[in-house]
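Issue: copy button drops trailing tokens. Both records pasted manually instead:
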Amino acid sequence: MATVTAAGAPATVRRAALAGLPEIARPTSVSTHRAQTLSVALLARLRDLEPGTPEHAYVRNTLVELNLSLVRFAARRFRHRPEEVEDIVQVGTIGLIKAIDRFDPGRGIEFSAFALPTVVGEMKRFFRDTSWAVRVPRRLQELRIDLARTADLLEQRLGHRPTRAELAACLHLSEEGVAEGELAARGYTARSLESALDEDAETPRTYLRLLAAPEAAYELIEDLTSLRPLIEGLDERDRRILSLRFGAELTQAQIGDRLGLSQMHVSRLLARILDELRAGLLADRDDRDARDADRSDPSEDPGDPRDDHGDHGDRGARAAGTGG
């Protein structure tokens, strides 16, 4: 069935629903005091109507519109939260509807006093279910609140921030349970890795820089890529010497025994092969540095070329020889 709003209800429905009560043209513009007085009469009338009928829906929605100010009053308590105010009001309105449906006029309780905790509870449930950056069990969500409240109380009582053991004793938990709650609390909010650690610093560091670490394997991969065509350009004997020296890790004498060469001859061959690979690798690295400088911002200094090519050449040749 479609919802019958206070403004759009037919005249016959309004008359039957109100049964002599005054009709309210604009419920949202009624003063707070008059809204309280009208709510008392409409709540009593609501109990006499059959749920699901147009008359019941009209009175129910009139009560909602009359008491929206109560929802907005409750929403102001959470105005500093990141959620949109209108989203909080919508959630609070659900709590207001629940309060209207559950309210018993015969108990002699003022409706606003009954409805406000229900409205606020619905808002808090919304925050608890949607505001966590990482989804954790509700038990741990509630434990986080208990830990925060207990920590503040114990700090006032003890004069220092309570230890995990003191929190566990006060909450009748194990220290492992407290640790689990503290760990879960870290999932409530998340910060960008690009956010600054110290906003007031002249050159603030970011979490990303704190977590980042240089990866030495990147240069090794570049060396291997550059060495591959150089090694493929060697003749078969030179490639085998590299494989035996850096792959099988044989000594020069052992290589000489396998190839029928003297140890001195193997030494000269290795020196020549490595000089050729090193020269080719240096030329390729110079080309890469030049390309990087061309792609960089002209206002920035691309930096001096690295002068440790020899070490990289030996390391690249050893890695390539291992792969061969």
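Record 2 (pasted manually too):
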Amino acid sequence: MWTEVAGYLIDPRQIAALGPVHPSGTGGGGGAVASTFEIVTLGGHVVLPKFADANQANAARNALKGRLPA
């Protein structure tokens, strides 16, 4: 049941919370701003996957959210 999120292997059954998508740093020019969101595990670990822009981060977050147990 593991799923890959930006190079991290995540078990959706072990996710306690998903944070909102937000910028992960400053953009370099007028283009897209690198983005991330927090994945908090049941054990209290926080994973911050990095994405090129908010659209990619939102897509990954939504896909992961869809795999969470009911």
